[in-house]
Structures are given as structure tokens and as C-alpha cells.
Amino acid sequence: MAVHLPVPQPSSGLCAKPQQQRGNASTAAAAVATPPSTFAPQTTRLSAPTIALNIRHTTTPAAPPVVVMTERVAKKQNEETTATLASMWREIQGARDWAGLVEPLHPLLRAEIVRYGELVAATYKAFDLDACSKRYLNCKYGKARMLEAVGMAGAGYDVTRYIYAAPDIALPGAAGPCPSRWIGYVAVASDETARRLGRRDVVVSFRGTVTGSEWVANMMSSLEQARFDPADPRPDVKVESGFLSVYTSDDATCRFTYGSCRNQLLSEVTRLISKYKHEEMSITLAGHSMGSSLALLLGYDLAELGLNCDGCGDTVPITVYSFAGPRVGNTGFKNRCDELGVKVLRVVNVNDPITKLPGIFLNENFFGAGRLELPWSCACYTHVGVELALDFFKARDPACVHDLEAYIGLLKCPNKVAVVKNDGEHVLSKAMKFVLQHSFDTWRWQMAAIQVGELVQAIGL
């Protein structure tokens, strides 16, 4: 299905703000080929013999004919694709809530989802899990070479700050509160990338849950008032207390930084907005699992405080790319995000139990929630944004249903998707069966066991 979107005329200079409203034109955007990735090839654990995949809300494009192109033709096609991405970046970032771009999945949107997913994957590759290392549970590399060290030298972003966070939780047997750990990074598009994207993009990328204290925080499913704006606390806006703790708690003993995760992020993002205020800008927040929750909290926080306004009085659009994200807040939180214009694209595997938590019963599907003002409406967890649903389950490895590389691999290789029939067996039963019947390495076992345990606890089995 061709998608016709208004295409503004390209502005002169490096993402310079236009002096007048751009004119509208139409373009057959759906016919544009996916732009070549600027990243180094990524390895993936997916293989045709061991996994059956299915994408809901997407159609599998026909395989293109094999064409031997000259260097000049390839360069011209690349320039045309780049120009189209630069001209319709607002639609790709959700200006119209991705209308006509998700079903079927537009090739440019697919490429952008993969690109931001790989920027999130970098947080896992750079995270030091060697207990003997002096950087244990922190980033293995310095900011200047982090992306290059994880195989993403061509990403086109400069890392400007590392972010540290710790929930205000005392684990059993621990001497004191949990220390801060590296949770992600802030980066800004280079001059060349800004020209290609059509704007100066500020990216904040968050990893998912790894440490024990983070797992405990994930299971704190009680709702708590966010109160981000002291002048307007909005008691109807409530978020999950564990995610809020990770976002707002401060660790004065951290040797890498000071202040809470929230203060670090607000300070750095506003600094970059001020630095590039005379250019077209976007704020893109991306995360996996718990990281997607932090991304959504940051997006709401920036918009609620009005910090996404540049010095020229323009509002910088905020987009959240959520990979395998759980619910974050109640109906009031969802409604307020919509009012503030925070755009959220949720990439989920329908078989992933984490995306159904918290609020496995009291959620947006509960009778009356979000539609009628009932006494229990404020206690209902609600997903925010537009959903892009994938459907895959890898035998012998239940942790795959929540794995970021599996998400990215499926989006990269849509032609390898095979339709699977629903056999009526609940995903929880499948996961428990494979956990009991098969052995995994230590990391995989922990991931699978904790994910299944969370869902068992949530539904009260």
C-alpha cells in the first residue's frame, strides 16, 4: 500500500531552521528502498532451522530481483533514499502517530527501528560483566571509542555523556543501598549524520535489567505519583514505583558521576538543546525492557517540565522507541503523555511475558479502564503509544522471546519469516516446559528463570 505523505522542501545549510513554512508535496514513500545501514554487520542468534517467526501488522515484501548496479547508480539511489528520509523525518518520528507506516511496515521506518535498536544493543555489548574487572558492572570503554569498540564505528553519533542509576533498594544481606551502575549514554548526531537525517538528533539509549537490585525494582508493581513538576504535581499521574526509584534515586558514593539518573539526563539533554537551538532537532529515547521504561519516564519528564523547547520558542519533538517494554504507568500517565505530544512506538513480541507486566489483570483491556471514569481506573496500568507486534518463539531457548538481538534480527530479515499456527498452548506453559527440560549456560538460565518467575508471581500461580 503506497503511503502519501507531505514532503517539505529541503532547507539550505546544516539542518538550519526554515525562515518560512515549507510547502507540501506528495511522494510515493512506500516505494522507497530501505537505506543501507551505516553500522557494521551484526551477528544474530536467529537461524531458519531453529526458529519460526511471524510478524503481525506487517506484510512480507517480495524478494527484489538481483541487479548488478554500477557504482554511479548505487550512489544515486543512496542519495535519493537519504533525501527522502531527511524530508519525511517528522512522520518517521511519529508526528502523525505512524499512520499508514506500521501496517504495512514502511521500509524507512523499519530501517530506523533497526538503527535505534542497534544503538540500544551497544549498551549490552559495552557493559562489563567480568567480576574480576575494575569496571565490573560499568562500561568497558571510554566515551570517545565506545561505539567503535562494539563494532558501530559508522553509527554517526558522538557520545557526550554516560548515565548511571541505582534503585533505592537494600538487597538482603547487603551492607547498604545498592551502588550506581552504568545504565546507558547520551549521544548527538555528527554533522554528516545530521545532514542525512534532516535534523540534529539527540539520542539517549538505555540497557535493560541486569543487576539483582534492578530485578527487584522490576517486581515493585505498586503505583506511585510521579510529581515531576513541583508547581503542578498531578496526583492522577502515577507510575510503577520500581522504575521511578531507578530514575530518581541518588547515590552520593558513585565515583563516576553525581546526582540521580534523572538529574544527569535533564542536565545533559537541555545542554545539547541549548547548543544546537538554531538547528532542526529531535530527541530520540530508546531502550530495551526496563530501559524502555526509563526512556518513557524521561520523555514525559522533559515534556512535562517544558525542557524540550529551544531558545527560539520551538518545541523539539520527543520520540520513544521501546523494545520489549513493560507497562510504566496508569491511565492518567498515558493520557498526559498523549497531551504533551510524547510519541511512543512499542516494538513487542506477543509471546514476551515482560510486555504484559505489570498490571496483568488491571490494565487498559480491563472493562471500563481508559473509557469511563470508574473508581478503579486510576489503578489500571496502561501501555502508551503505537504497537508494532512481532510473533516469534525459539524452541530450546525461552529467553529468546525477550532478547533484543532476536527483535533486531527479525526486523532485519523479514523475508525469512515463517507463519506459525497457534497451537493453543499458553506461552507460560511453553517457557516452563523448556526451562525444565533443557539446560542453558548460566546467563541464559538466569534470564529464563527470572522472566518465568516474574510472570508466575504476577498472575498468582
TrEMBL record:
Domain Fungal lipase-type residue range list: 203-360
The catalytic activity, as recorded, is: a 1,2-diacyl-sn-glycero-3-phosphocholine + H2O = a 2-acyl-sn-glycero-3-phosphocholine + a fatty acid + H(+)
Where is this protein found? Plastid, Chloroplast
Annotated GO biological processes are: lipid catabolic process
Q: A single GO CC term, please?
A: chloroplast
Supply one GO molecular-function term.
phospholipase A1 activity
The record's section on InterPro entries has: AB_hydrolase_fold (IPR029058), Fungal_lipase-type (IPR002921)
Q: Which UniProt keywords apply?
A: Chloroplast, Hydrolase, Lipid degradation, Lipid metabolism, Plastid, Transit peptide
Summary of the function given for this chain in its UniProt record:
Phospholipase that releases free fatty acids from phospholipids. Catalyzes the initial step of jasmonate (JA) biosynthesis. Required for the biosynthesis of endogenous JA in seedling, inflorescence and spikelets. Not essential for JA biosynthesis after wounding. Mediates spikelet development and specification of empty-glume identity. Functions in a high temperature-dependent manner to maintain floral developmental robustness under heat stress conditions. Functions by safeguarding the expression of several floral identity genes, such as MADS1, MADS6 and G1.
Recorded protein name is Phospholipase A1 EG1, chloroplastic/mitochondrial
Q: Which organism is it from?
A: Zea mays (Maize)
Lineage of the species this protein comes from: Eukaryota, Viridiplantae, Streptophyta, Embryophyta, Tracheophyta
